Amino acid sequence: MIFRCCVLRMKCDVIFYRKIKRQVCDAESTGFLQSPARRDSVIAMILHMDMDAFFASVEQLDHPELKGTALVVGDASGRGVVAAASYEARRYGIHSAMPMFMARQKCPHLVIMRVRKDRYKAVSRSVMAILDRYSPVVEQVSIDEAYVDAAGCDRLFGSPEHMARLIQSEIRDTLSLSCSMGVAPLKFLAKIASDMHKPAGLTVILPEQVPPIIATLPICKVPGVGKQALEHLSRLGVSTLGDIRAFKPAFLVDRMGKFGHRLAELACGRDDGQVIPNSPAKSISSERTLAADTCDREILRQQLLSQSEEVGRQLRRKGYRARTVTLKLKQADFRQITRSLTLAGPTQSSNILFQTALTLIDNLSLATPVRLIGIGASGLIDTAAPHQLSLFPETDLKDDEWEKVDTVMDRIAKRFGPKAVHRGMGTAESMIDES
Ligand code: TTP
Ligand code: MG
Ligand code: MG
Description:
It is built from 16 helices and twelve strands. The protein is of the alpha+beta class and 435 residues long. The longest helix is centred in the N-terminal third of the chain and has 28 residues, at 2-29. The structure holds thymidine-5'-triphosphate and magnesium ion (MG) (2 copies).
């Protein structure tokens, strides 16, 4: 069954791309894409950006001697799978999610690099920072892709197509990495377009191309159509998105629920999906399963101390203050207990997080051993937002003093690693008094 779906998808891909490429080329040859007068800036267009062979390209960037080689990123052990494959490796039929042993069989001289998540996240942040310079409305949807709303950006960057080219150049020139972009009046089509001419491709779907593209778009290409939906739809005789129009929306809803309604909408060229700027984090937390279940309060306090530091460090790095602190415990019998306390004023001080978590745990009886402990900070506000001083000035002074300590500790942790420095439990108050 899985094999049938894969074959169906592969067939869909080949036929669809041949048709679409012909339509986009037709548009190019009739001057649609070249003529500035017929550009798409009047209708709000959406850009979709996806980095090319992301993890693998970052490895080639950091190891220039590996440029042009068949390279994969992933766990090299027996049970490992390929996370990312360079375009050179793809020529051997290697792709993401393929078992590593199979990838090795296909290409005996394959270079395997281990995953460096932190490095890819850092590069991802640089990429997103570039996108932020082009539009205030950017929605990151994964580590290597984002939508950009081009509405109102034409004065600064020209047509959406031109804006996409500028973004590609800036990413290439400043980060030495390539990305592919899609431009379309509908969000789901922008995503499909960015995948059409990888790597380093740019595909524009103009409003007048939408109806013929929808008519021939293989249903497997529609985001959200997974294995199950694909089988269901193929039983109904649906092979393209256009085929959906043969069915009444009520019938589709009856068969497929909400997604049936969405398909009916997309088939009519209606995608109310807006580019939604990423909402800031709702909470920051840290939790740990203990080496052994315990009722020992000292052990639990020690855990809370290091977790408060971890959460505090993240709050400060991301530029948030938290209003609420939550303690979470999972007992040996898997029962979960959570207790929260809202502070008089928002904080990003590790010490205040710790003291609050201590108050919460000291009020619990702990009859059953604890197997997991966690601390969370929520009700986050941006540090750039005005910070209202507390009605009790002495509290503010303390908080400020602690923030100085935090700043020094953050610097040490950044330079020598998070384990290089940590607070001692009994010394919390005296440290301030001595300084
Ligand atoms: P993708 O954008 O899907 O793939 P890609 O960037 O490697 O290649 P393409 O040029 O086709 O876009 O995923 C982005 C990264 O996410 C990818 O480099 C590695 C990671 N990833 C996994 O870890 N596992 C997976 O199964 C997939 C698909 C991606
Ligand atoms: Mg990618
Ligand atoms: Mg991606």
